[in-house]
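Each lists sequence, tokenised fold; shown next:
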Amino acid sequence: MNELGALTPTHLRELAGFVTAARFLNFARASREVGCSPSVLSRRIASLESRVGGRVFLRSTRRMTLTPLGESLLSHCERLETALAAVNAELLGHRAEPAGLVRLHLPTTYGRRCVAPLLPGLLSKYPRLRLDVTFDDGYADLVATRTDIALRIGVPADSGLSATSLRPIRRFLVASARYLADAPALERPEDLKEHRCLALHGLRSGELWTFERQRQRRVVRVRPVLRANNADALLEAALAGSGVALLADFVAGDAIAAGNLVEVMTGWTVTQPEVQLLWVSGAERMPRVRATIDLLRERLGR
């Protein structure tokens, strides 16, 4: 390595190449993105490593990963990107057309059914906008995954993030008329113990279903004949007459309207989970992020 030196604005090209390579973890793809050959990009990274005093990547014939020094440098670069984006947003003002990439992390079923139909309209309104959407029911660290916006259901917002609440999800018990014709009475929460239940895997409530009516509160432990981590699978089972399911309105609403499912035990209500819209504080100053947040709040807000 050459003698360690300070990073200055003259090294922005090397830093830009490093950030792109860190995001793709592939020199060939990164070089195409920055508009140079892989060998040129490799030389830029080597020059940067001389400046920072160590390797930023570990490379083998099969994979490429960041070193701890590379992870630290990437974190600093991302803060610089955010600061520059904020400066640009201030200079351009809110009249600037949203452009660039927005990364979203959405719960699988809610995202597909409630958010995905809104995205074509957003892209049509802002042709220079690009979206990278992940449908996943797991927790996403927005900073670590470089995610701009996330939606979470029933999970408190992280203390370091900006958040706003969207419409709560309405959940109810449903079953097919065919199942109910031969099933025991279902008028009270306790009656569920005698029924074949279909439960969503992964809910915090698990197999404890909580019901409320006026000042009464009942908690029932169900023994599902089917557990799944996908609400559509439970919907199909309920439609086929397999049992009673606790489903959200955006999952079962159409089937109820069509008469294929019946809402049962209507005198009792189920806890309605909150939907949180989250983003890294300050990111809303970027027009591309602000436009996406505004659309979600407008269409999915209270």
